[in-house]
Amino acid sequence: TLLPDVAGRYVVSLRVTDEHGLVSDYRPGTDQLDEVAVFAKSINHLPVTRLLKEGGWRNSFLATNYAQFDQQQPLVITGLTRDSETYGPLRMDVVKLIADTYDPDGDTLSHLWNLISEPQGNRMELPTGAACNNGQSYDRLAETLEEYIDRVNGYREWTCDSFSLAPTEPGTYVFQYQTYDGSDFAGPFQTTVHAVRRENYPSLLLEASSDEYGKVGQSDGSDLVMQAVFPWMDTHAPDLKAESNYQDGYMVTRYFKLTAFGGDYRLMGVQTNSIKPEYEPRFWDETNQVEITDGYTIPQGGSVVVAFQVPISSDDPEEEVGCADINGSFHIDGHPDWTVTLSPFWTGSGSVCSD
Question: What gap in Å lies between CA 351 and CA 355, rounded to an integer?
Fold first, then answer.
């Protein structure tokens, strides 16, 4: 029994020598003994936790902010999938649960999530991103792939710190999380995800390209099917040499779609900027072929494809374009935190703009 009287790290090793002088428990290939480290402390500090949510496959291309998936901007269940060679169709309309947790004492943490409430009839489907298989890998000798997928989708407790889920039914999902540092539990903490079908969305729906490499999208909106949420910041900059990104003397850095459910919505504080006037961008309504300016209104039931256009050509040097600080933004009237900010950043521009 070890009874430390001073806080700190204690290292214990055991060596047994027989009558021939041979020593046990050397690490293979070394002359060192195996050791066990024991940490002693006079006070245990509980882990600190912040629960976060993300949405959408390749979310880094669609938003830099975390989603709340509250009643105003719920998760949209569309059933959108992409194919994978190993597991078949994977759902792209997902919610990613994240436990941003650390321990002040540096203790190793274990995690436990529980789904404590879900709509009747819901069944999870395999998501894009990282599902949580609770440490159980697919063993093709013990089960079929379909059985493995059904087992993973059937979990309602998860031991990962973060993972993605793809629910099938609209309604309210309540999750509970707690963590253990070896001495004490922190939690339980709760977080809620509201989900709806697209046609029942309650507010202004923002959608962008579902392309896995974050391409700008299509002007007709045919591929603008991936939900994003406000506040939305996009820094994606397409290839300056790709002629497909040019249209009527402008380069399009991003298409996105706004659909007004539940009322009319006005775009306020519309700003477009560049420190080089010849590169000043604009927001362009592709659907109605008009420039979007302050007070632009999307009526209830209306849907518009918006292009962020920059007056550059494939002959413009990437360094000059990248150093022009091209950006645009607006917010939704009545919702000051519902912002859209586009600031395309071309690779390498940061190093050459330092002067």
Answer: 9
CB atoms inside a 10 Å sphere around CB 13: 10
- SS3 assignment, position 194: strand
The pLDDT, as a whole number, for residue 132 is 92
Domain range list for the chain: 48-200, 204-352
| pLDDT per position as a tens digit, 301-339 | 999 999 999 998 878 887 888 888 999 999 999 999 999
Residues 6+ apart with CB under 8 A from 44: 105, 181, 183, 184
What DSSP string describes 227-244?
EE-SSEEE-----TT-GG
Q: At which residue do the structure tokens 């650390």 appear?
A: 102
CATH 1.10.530 fits 204-352, yes or no: no
Instruction: Sort strands 95-102 and 75-77 into parallel, antiparallel or unpaired.
Output: unpaired
Residues ≥6 apart with Cβ < 8 Å to 103:
45, 47, 48, 109, 181
Beta strands 157-158 and 185-197 are unpaired
Q: Which position has the token pair 């949420």? A: 229
Q: CA–CA separation, 71 vs 171, rounded Å?
A: 10
* Amino acid in position 301: G
CA dihedral 148, 150, 156, 157 (to 10 degrees): 0
Residue 95 CA to its chain's centroid (Å): 8
Judge contact between 88 and 213, C-beta under 8 A: no
* Segment 49-69, tens digit of pLDDT: 999 998 874 444 444 557 889
Choose between 179 and 44: higher pLDDT.
179
Counting Cα atoms < 13 Å in the Cβ hemisphere of 131 gives 25
| Residue 341 reports pLDDT greater than 60 | yes
